[in-house]
Amino acid sequence: MNRRALLLSGAGAAGAVVVGWALLPPRERLGGVDALPVAAGEVALNGWIKIAADGAVMLAMHRSEMGQGPHTALAMLVAEELDVALASVRLFDAPADRLYGNVATMVASVPYFHPRETEPGSETAPARAGQWVVAKIARELGINLTGGSSSVVDSWEVLRVAAATARARLLGAASIAWKQPLHELVVANAVISHPSGRSAHYGELAKMAAATPSGEVRIKRREQWKLIGTSPPRVDVVAKSNGSAVFGIDVRPPGLVFAAIRHCPMLGGRPGAVDVAPALALPGVDRVVRLGSYGGSTAAFAVVGKTWWHAERGAAALAVDWQQRPAGALDSAAILAALEQRARAAHGDDGGFAFHSRGDIAAADARASRHVEQVYRAPYLAHATMEPINCTARVAGGKVEVWAPTQVPGLARAIAAEAAGVAVDAVTLHTTYLGGGFGRRLDVDVVGQAVRVALETGGRPVQLVWSREEDLGHDFYRPAGVTILRAGLGADGLPTTLRITSAGDAITPRWMERALPTLAGPVDTPDKTASEGLFDQLYGVPHQRIAHVATQMGVPVGYWRAVGHSHNAFFSESFFDELAHAAGRDPVDYRLALLKDAPRHAAVLRLAAERAGWPGFGLSRPLGPGRARGVALHESYGSIVAQVVEASIVAGKPRVHRVVCAADVGTVVHPGIVAQQLEGAVIFALSAALYGRIDIERGVVRQTNFPTYPVVRLAESPTIETHLVDSTRPPGGVGEIGVPPLAPALANALFALTGKRLRDLPLAL
Amino acid sequence: MEIFVNGAARQLPDALADPGLPLLWALRDLLGLTGTKFGCGIAACGACTVHVDGAAVRSCTLPIGKLEGRRVVTIEALGSADKPHPLQRAWAEHQVPQCGYCQSGILMAAAALLARTRRPSDAEIDAAIDNVCRCGTVPRLRAAIRAAAATVS
After folding, report:
1. A65, A68, A241, best to mutate vs chain B, most B CBs in 10 Å
2. Per-residue pLDDT tens digits of chain B, which is 153 residues long
3. B81: which residues sit within 8 A by CB, 6+ positions away?
4. Burial class (CB in 10 A: 0-12, 13-18, 19+), A605
5. What are phi and psi of A59, to 5 degrees?
6. pLDDT exceeding 90 applies to what percent of chain A?
7. Which long-range contacts (CB under 8 A, 24 or more apart) does B121-130 make?
8. Which A residues 256-275 touch B at CB under 8 Å?
9. Residues of A in contact with B34 (CB under 8 A)
10. Beta strands, E only, A45-176
11. Which is nearest to A82 in space by CA: A60, A61, A41, A51?
């Protein structure tokens, strides 16, 4: 096996993996014994693992905990290989170093390969070459990013190897110290012992281990796992049940003052005349700070006060003559109309960027017995993380200290340095717990703002917190999209041609400009996230052209949980349901007929159908009166999910009673967290499917708070079942994969119930 | 001004203790009790739920001027490390929290419910817990609350 195969495809995961230094040199991803800062009594064994004086294993935690469970799952990988209890692994913030960059997300996002070209173990030569180059670049750039459902995918090999290497060094040290052969040593719960009676805990051996070569390192075989595949309590559950978990909004450095903010209500607008006197006259208000654009934000004023409420009162008292952006006021209805025009024009003349083409679509279309063509639409959406957007910063003596609930600590550090006018090395960044992320915290606008405000507070730390109204009004929204889908059906009712043309803003080039400006290019390259879930679907349609028209409508757009998949799955899986009905076929049977070359997908679909009691599959379960089922299947982030939704109409509105999820996520590290994520994704996606829309009129977002941007609460929440396929493949993503199938499964159920096909989100009867 | 929180009288600095100051900000920014969260500011999401004289109240819209003679309990005093509240044990057993941000408010709403209704029905649970949770932990709440109810004698 070569190194590339190990790092990129995880091909070694199925069997015993022997890793020597030659295969995985430390400069790649393990780091040397000097990569980590150590306190008194601690010893670093590589760039990931330290051993404390009491023998505890300390793990450099490089991924952000926003509920999706990396603090638990990644600690499990290390506990497994080091033979310690999960509870005894202590986490500390990974330092700012390229070592902690996310390779998997970049490899998954940059080249536009169809999944058939990147199947682990049978990649095409161009796909192998492309992924190798991107992986090299990703390692050189070393961007620490929690997103793309990649924490376990990216860390699966490196953390287990890091822990196994640490264990090998500790064993080697014991062997040398006691003059006993390695194979006679026994490890249990951080204690190494020998039948002769010698024993020592990791802390006693660590110093010597650091100077002991690891020799040949072997990670455990699947059948040796004790922890991986089980569901121990999450490491954060106690702190998150007693109020002690520290989110960004909870840090309290001495001398802290608070800041509230008012952005120009019109997106992209700017302030004209301003009168700050009424704000400054209020008690508890200290100062007003004018803010330009930071990391893509709209211009704003921050008001500093003794409590956040005093600051917010001050912000409300600002009298500002706000001006529209020079390019004219934004309007979401006009944008949707323009997107439809662009999509129609491109659909007719092979326009847009074709992410996937195969066969001869024109010739095959001429032979089709009939065609189905439909237009689907999705609105802008906000993230609405429960923890409002915030950042705490202190600037004193040329140093900057930042506390941020961020998905991108390195980029947060960079914008903090820029805002303060200091070198990046002068910035210390603490990543707190994130009260939800969903992609919103891949942006660092608030970090730049907070540091700018902290320049004005005389060395005192300041905590900038946006109100919910500022959050909904100044998000980086999921882009609105219009997609035209056209299929030619053969005599058997199965599609022979598929032409999809979507139009919408590309996210990645805009995000690069504002969050990673040093890498933003002079022209936009095609953004795979725009077409993901359309160009890469695996239904066996021989002639295809799947294209996207990238627009720049001016609304700030960002990554929203499941990104392109979140709406593209709605378009695709609703449309295939339409085709099944056009062919007079059962929607599950019809899909299975198109999945003859995709056995994993077919197995997931069958499992969902069986567990849901779909007629003809397993024990079919009759539905109550007034209820119907809908199904959808979607692959994202290397995992496959099928959902069957059972719905009815209550008081004229859709009501979901039961959702059965089946998933193939490859090897499961923590089944309990996978179930949590799938359940949570169903609720998140159901909120969007039923209620989610951001409307912009005259530049202003109409939705202001939860009453106008509603989400599903307990009384509306369905029963959710999750079923996982047994798999020995390397782990796939988990955090986002439950989102895409929900909206189409619900729309398909509502069609079965009412005969009405809903092609616009949110779903309204 | 003085407010009575978690069993003790707490002094608030006169210069900042405006009677209109919502309890949420007195707790978080003046007393350092950060377990109670800010989510919406208009009593629409429940992240800021505390107990006032035993009832679940959304502290983001409750002015401290209305607290004279009333007892406030926050998440910090719901249980202790040695003696967690039955709900906190159920939360661990059912692995409820994800990001965890809304959980203080949900726990306080659930605790107030169990204090007045020993064996709540699903409908009573649904009515009492209309908190917003963006991670979607709500499907686990009914079972966790019922499990806690079963252990409260």
Report:
1. A241
2. 999 999 999 999 999 999 999 999 999 999 999 999 999 999 999 999 999 999 999 999 999 999 999 999 999 999 988 999 999 999 999 999 999 999 999 999 999 999 999 999 999 999 999 999 999 999 999 999 999 999 875
3. A242
4. buried
5. -110, 130
6. 87
7. B125/A714, B126/A714, B126/A715, B127/A715, B128/B56, B129/A713, B129/A714, B129/B46, B130/A713, B130/A714, B130/A715, B130/B46
8. 258
9. 243, 246, 249-250, 252
10. 49-51, 57-61, 89-93
11. A51
- CA-closest candidate to residue A410, choices A159, A101, A48, A30: A101
Q: Taking CB atoms and an 8 Å limit, are B132 and A433 in contact across chains?
A: no
DSSP state, A191? E
Contact check, Cβ <8 Å, B34/A467: no
Amino acid identity at B67: L
Optimal mutation site among A386, A432, A464, interface B, most CBs of chain B within 10 A: A386
Kindly state the tokens that stand for B132: 């917003």
DSSP A102: -
Closest of A554, A468, A411 to residue A261, by C-alpha? A468
Of B28, B47, B101, B27, the closest CA to residue A706 belongs to: B47
- DSSP-derived pairing of the beta strands A217-219 and A17-19: antiparallel
* Facing B137 at nearest CB: one of A244, A437, A680: A680
CB within 8 Å of A112: residues ≥ 6 apart: A355, A356, A526, A528, A535
Contact call for B141 and A714, based on CB within 8 A: yes
Tell me which residue of A731, A553, A570 sits closest to A156, measured CA to CA.
A731
Cβ-based contacts of A684 with chain B (< 8 Å): 134-136
- Report yes or no: A433 at the B interface, CB cutoff 8 Å: yes
Residue A733 burial (C-beta neighbours within 10 Å; 0-12, 13-18, 19+): buried
Say how far apart CA B85 and CA B113 lie, in whole Å: 13
